[in-house]
Specification:
With 122 residues, the protein is mainly alpha-helical. Helix content is 70%, strand content 10%. It has helices at 2-8, 17-29, 48-67, 69-87, 95-121; strands at 33-38, 41-46. A two-stranded antiparallel ribbon has the order 1-2. The relative contact order is 0.06.
């Protein structure tokens, strides 16, 4: 499943097992996904309820992004940052460079949170 997600994102994103499996467990407990055992392997299958929920959420997202151009611009910028990191993936293997870039990203996240928290308090 993790490999499938990584392929969908063309290698730009690879989720960790620690982020994927708790979500799957939650989906199973909510009845949105069921687990079948086939030849000793766990196969996750979307249920009718899961399919219905997916369609509702997809429509919500479609409406949100079509009506909220500012948010779309922000997510596009984040995607562009992801592409930049991907384009420099070889350089990012250097630990010093990686840590410098990680610091920039952490600082940016903190600044964004500070701006949004400031607006939220107003």
């Amino acid at each position: 499943m993790i490999k499938t997600i990584e392929k969908k994102f063309s290698g730009l994103y690879k989720p960790s097992p620690g982020s994927v499996y708790p979500v799957i467990k939650s989906l199973v407990s909510e009845g949105l996904v069921k687990v079948d055992n086939v030849n000793g392997k766990k196969i996750y299958v979307i249920t009718d309820s899961g399919r219905s929920t997916y369609k509702e959420m997809k429509e919500e997202a479609k409406n949100f992004f079509s009506q909220n151009n500012q948010y779309r611009k922000l997510t596009r910028s984040l995607f562009d940052i992801g592409l930049t990191l991907y384009n420099y993936k070889e350089i990012l293997k250097d630990e010093k460079t990686f840590n410098e870039v990680m610091t920039v990203i952490d600082d940016c996240r903190k600044k964004i949170e500070a701006v949004l928290e400031g607006v939220k308090k107003e």
